[in-house]
């Protein structure tokens, strides 16, 4: 019994004065040693003890009580192997370690350079500020009620076999800190849940050992994989700093994981994914032309977003686009010295505010849908290779610059009025479409070259027409395979070196009743007839023009439209508008063709003539019998024409009246080009007409409504360029649009 009483007395060390741990004065007698076993330590309020040596505390039922201050001016540490650290004071020392059976109920403040936990479950209720390292060797460090663990800027959470668990406590106060993983396989914990993580390091035992992300994670600094694997585990990882990957280390990913690369500059290392990895979204948003390299194989299941910066496929890398995946490009680009696999059906989108030169993204055999939708209509995609789009091509806003390459559309097509196709004398557009629904083509009107194609191939997958909404010059060949091309307000000009092939009564150039577009071809002096394969949507109605040797070589234009309705007139339901475009001397022969279904009121084709509207009236010429023409048509000829304007085919003895000419056929616009005043003269001035002056964007600049025979528009304030005048007869609501040039 006496021995027991002596032990109980010696089990208590209470500081009586401020001073060093090793000083007997501090303790009012014998000072505790560096190893405190089965003894209680008490530092009362108002007392400051300087820890001038390392202390190991053990004792299952013993307490290390700090109500005052425990401080350290050296690198001394306290190691709690068992027993409880308690109190309400302040502990400001170099290192505090818990292991084995150590515990804490401390409710004061801990200011520590380093804290280490190896306890199976350490319930933490203190306020702790870590300036250097929080080391999780083993077990769980649980932040319970009132537990507040703050990492200082530049400090590190070092995760071994332990973990950090937040129950009802708080981890971190917003400082930028680092995380390091060592040892064996583990799942990331609360240490990666902060938005202020700076650098993350992996230094695992082997490269086959990984760290699994448990939540979406943002790394504001660098990711350095010295050894081991970082498994995205279906989460989103955002990396804003550098990437350094040592040989054999990898990133593991699956098709539910996302990787977002932000920041600036070029990565030190290439992206290295584990074998068989895929990813849902890979986003590159690396400013200042930052470069990201791909050094391994990766399959993209969702989106490859190139918002800014370059993604380079290294010669050891392979980028595979999975079915239904999309490459979205804004200010970035995709280059390749390795392998790009686009055999599955994938899509490409261009957007943002920067021009793009196409890369390997448009070379895959599985390229399905292509969309261009820039913020500005002036931005463009420049083709660097021939491209085949197998699905839908949507040109919503901006330009597609063919750049001398061939664009083949093998699905469907849509182009808005805020977009343009930029051609050239060597560019080709092949419209091998599965269907069209009044879709329109608009070509860049910057200059003649941008409105030019070497070849245009029409295959609309049926009888429907694709509409030409602006001028186009074909340099080599206009080829019809199936379907039609309809002229809206754009002329279709066939260069003297070019030809039209494949046309017939189901495949031809449709001219509009209301549009101003015409088919233009060169007719050589003394040469054979030139076929103008024109018609309305209902039927083929070709015109054939020949210049005799007395005429000069030059461009002629042709279009046709319907005659005004008549219950008695025996004629072909067509008016052909044939005009010369800058031809010095006209001495022409003309043949007109039509289908039998366009013959009105029992028209007798064996006794008919071509009537020419000239000198404000329809003339009468010698009658003849129509002959069978090409492509199920009938033809009639007229020779010796020295002027051009509207033509019609009527039965002999059925002269046309002026009223049987469309009231808009006699429209004259002069001078064209004009500097200051545009004059508009109408054949019939008894009706009221509405006039709209329109620019190339479709914007209405001026309007007027009246029944004057001649109208004048002041255009002196307009910028130089092309414009349109649209005239609508308010009596029958028919419209005609003419183009003019402001000098």
What does this structure look like?
This protein has two helices and 70 strands. The protein has 743 residues and is mainly beta. Among the domains are: 107 residues, no CATH class; 125 residues, no CATH class; 130 residues; 75 residues, Immunoglobulin-like. The strands form eight sheets. The chain has a 20-stranded parallel beta sheet that branches. It has a 16-stranded parallel beta sheet that branches. Strands 38, 40, 43, 45, 47, 49, 50, 52, 56, 57, 59, 60 and 63 form a 13-stranded mixed beta sheet that branches. Strand 59 and strand 60 form a beta hairpin. The radius of gyration is 43 Å and the shape is rod-shaped.
Outline:
The chain has 743 residues and is mainly beta. Among the domains are: 107 residues, no CATH class; 125 residues, no CATH class; 130 residues; 75 residues, Immunoglobulin-like (Sandwich). The protein is built from 2 helices and 70 strands.
SSE layout:
Elements: H1 2-10, E1 12-14, E2 19-20, H2 24-27, E3 35-37, E4 40-43, E5 48-50, E6 55-58, E7 63-66, E8 69-71, E9 77-86, E10 90-104, E11 109-117, E12 121-124, E13 127-143, E14 148-151, E15 156-166, E16 170-171, E17 177-183, E18 186-187, E19 197-204, E20 210-212, E21 217-219, E22 223-227, E23 229-231, E24 236-239, E25 243-245, E26 250-252, E27 258-261, E28 278-285, E29 291-294, E30 297-313, E31 318-321, E32 326-336, E33 339-341, E34 346-352, E35 356-357, E36 367-374, E37 380-382, E38 387-389, E39 392-401, E40 406-409, E41 412-415, E42 419-422, E43 428-432, E44 440-441, E45 452-459, E46 465-468, E47 472-482, E48 484-487, E49 492-494, E50 499-501, E51 509-511, E52 519-523, E53 530-532, E54 534-535, E55 543-547, E56 554-561, E57 575-581, E58 588-594, E59 608-614, E60 617-618, E61 627-629, E62 633-641, E63 646-651, E64 668-670, E65 677-681, E66 689-694, E67 700-706, E68 710-714, E69 721-729, E70 735-742
Parallel strand pairs: 1-4, 2-5, 3-6, 4-7, 5-8, 6-9, 7-9, 8-10, 9-10, 10-11, 11-13, 12-13, 13-14, 13-15, 14-16, 15-17, 17-19, 18-20, 19-22, 20-23, 21-24, 22-25, 23-26, 24-27, 27-28, 28-30, 29-30, 30-31, 30-32, 31-33, 32-34, 34-36, 35-37, 36-39, 37-39, 38-40, 39-41, 39-42, 40-43, 43-45, ...
Antiparallel strand pairs: 52-56, 53-55, 55-58, 56-57, 57-63, 58-62, 59-60, 59-63, 61-62, 64-65, 65-68, 66-67, 66-69, 69-70
């Amino acid at each position: 019994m006496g021995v027991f009483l002596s032990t109980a007395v010696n089990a208590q060390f209470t500081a009586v004065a401020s001073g060093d741990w090793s000083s007997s004065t501090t303790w009012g007698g014998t000072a505790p040693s560096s190893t405190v076993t089965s003894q209680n330590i008490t530092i009362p309020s108002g007392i400051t003890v300087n820890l001038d040596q390392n202390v190991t505390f053990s004792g299952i039922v013993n307490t290390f009580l700090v109500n005052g201050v425990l401080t350290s001016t050296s690198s001394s540490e306290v190691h709690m192997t068992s027993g409880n650290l308690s109190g309400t004071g302040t502990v400001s020392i170099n290192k505090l370690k818990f292991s084995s059976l150590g515990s804490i109920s401390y409710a004061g403040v801990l200011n520590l350079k380093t804290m280490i936990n190896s306890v199976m479950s350490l319930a933490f209720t203190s306020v702790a500020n870590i300036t250097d390292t929080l080391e999780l060797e083993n077990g769980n460090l649980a932040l319970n009620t009132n537990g507040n663990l703050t990492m200082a800027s530049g400090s590190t959470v070092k995760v071994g076999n332990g973990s950090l668990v937040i129950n009802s406590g708080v981890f971190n106060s917003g400082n930028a800190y680092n995380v390091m993983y060592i040892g064996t396989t583990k799942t990331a914990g609360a240490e990666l849940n902060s938005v202020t993580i700076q650098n993350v390091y992996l230094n695992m035992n082997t490269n086959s050992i990984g760290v699994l992300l448990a939540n979406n994670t943002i790394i504001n600094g660098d990711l350095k994989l010295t050894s081991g694997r970082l498994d995205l585990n279906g989460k989103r990882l955002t990396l804003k700093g550098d990437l350094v990957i040592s040989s054999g280390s990898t990133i593991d990913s699956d098709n539910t994981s996302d990787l977002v690369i932000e920041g600036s500059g070029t990565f030190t290392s290439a992206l290295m994914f584990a074998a068989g990895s895929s990813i849902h979204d890979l986003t590159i948003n690396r400013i200042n032309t930052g470069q990201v390299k791909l050094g391994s194989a990766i399959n993209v299941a969702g989106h490859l977003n190139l918002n800014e910066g370059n993604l380079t496929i290294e010669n050891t890398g392979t980028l595979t686009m999975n079915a239904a995946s999309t490459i979205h490009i804004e200010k970035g680009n995709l280059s390749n010295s390795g392998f790009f696999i686009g055999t599955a059906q994938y899509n490409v989108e261009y957007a943002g505010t920067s021009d793009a030169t196409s890369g390997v993204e448009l070379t895959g055999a599985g390229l399905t849908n292509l969309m261009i939708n820039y913020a500005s209509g002036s931005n463009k995609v420049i083709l660097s290779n021939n491209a085949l789009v197998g699905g839908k091509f949507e040109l919503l806003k901006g330009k597609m610059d063919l750049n001398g390459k061939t664009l083949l559309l093998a699905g469907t097509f849509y182009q808005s009025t805020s977009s343009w196709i930029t051609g050239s004398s060597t560019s080709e557009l092949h419209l091998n479409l599965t269907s069209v629904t009044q879709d329109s083509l608009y070509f860049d009107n910057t200059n003649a070259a941008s409105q030019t194609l070497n070849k245009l191939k029409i295959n609309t997958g049926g009888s429907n027409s694709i509409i030409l909404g602006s001028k186009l010059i074909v340099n080599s060949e206009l080829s019809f395979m199936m379907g039609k091309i309809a002229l809206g307000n754009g002329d279709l000009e066939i260069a003297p070196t070019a030809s039209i092939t494949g046309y017939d009564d189901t495949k031809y150039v449709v001219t509009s009743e209301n549009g101003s577009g015409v088919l233009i071809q060169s007719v050589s002096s003394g040469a054979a007839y030139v076929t103008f394969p024109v018609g309305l949507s209902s039927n083929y109605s070709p015109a054939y023009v020949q210049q005799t040797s007395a005429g000069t070589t030059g461009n002629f234009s042709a279009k046709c439209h319907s005659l005004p309705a008549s219950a008695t007139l025996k004629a072909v339901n067509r008016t052909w508008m044939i005009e010369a475009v800058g031809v010095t001397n006209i001495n022409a022969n003309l043949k007109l063709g039509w289908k039998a279904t366009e013959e009105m009121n029992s028209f007798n084709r064996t006794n008919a003539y071509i009537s020419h509207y000239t000198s404000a009236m329809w003339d009468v010429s010698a009658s003849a019998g129509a002959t069978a023409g090409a492509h199920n048509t009938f033809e009639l000829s007229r020779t010796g024409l020295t002027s051009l304007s509207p033509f019609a085919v009527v039965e002999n003895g059925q002269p046309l009246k002026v009223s049987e000419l469309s009231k808009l056929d006699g429209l004259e616009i002069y001078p064209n080009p004009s500097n200051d005043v545009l004059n508009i003269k109408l054949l019939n001035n008894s009706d009221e007409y509405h006039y709209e002056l329109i620019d190339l964007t479709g914007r209405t600049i001026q309007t007027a409504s009246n029944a004057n025979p001649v109208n004048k528009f002041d255009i002196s304030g307009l910028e130089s360029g092309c414009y349109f005048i649209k005239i609508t007869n308010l009596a029958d609501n028919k419209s005609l649009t003419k183009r003019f040039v402001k000098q």
